[in-house]
Amino acid sequence: DDIKLIERLRGRDAKIISLINKTDITAVSLMISLKTAFGEDTANIRTVFEKIAARGDCCTISGLAITGGDIIKAGIPSGKLVGEMLARCLEAVLREPELNKKEKLMEIILSKNGF
Q1: CA–CA distance from 39 to each of 15, 28, 33, 36 (Å)?
Q2: Residue 1 has what DSSP assignment?
Q3: In angstroms, rounded to a whole number, what is the distance separating the alpha carbons of residues 80 and 64?
Q4: In the chain, at which end, N or C, are there fewer CB atoms within 10 A of the end residue's CB?
């Protein structure tokens, strides 16, 4: 389950990262604003959200430093495998954010022991 993986990897930021993963950063910002407009205390959640946004954390496949096109250009056939590789790259980046560099992710994908 996404939430359990992210909670294990990121602690208290996990729920926000998971929400961003399931929607997008703009939607989460709007949700926080809406809760605030209805009188809910959102100071803590807004602080965590702003920290995640400021760090530029990769929370979604679209935030990865590589695309399906990069994987295909590297010789992996187009299809389901490309999507699986992107999902695995996201898992790796959630564990270790510093891996979100094109060279590092491509090295992992192309290595014998990759995924």
Answers
A1: 21, 17, 10, 5
A2: -
A3: 18
A4: N
Phi, psi of 103 (to 5 degrees): -60, -45
> Cβ(86)–Cβ(61) under 8 Å?
yes
One-character DSSP codes across 25-42: HHHHHHHHHHHHHTT---
Beta carbons of 21 and 59 less than 8 angstroms apart: yes
Torsion of CA 39, 6, 91, 95, to 10 degrees: 110
Query: pLDDT digit string (tens) for 63-113?
Result: 999 999 999 999 989 999 999 999 989 988 888 888 999 999 999 888 854
Give the global pTM: 0.69
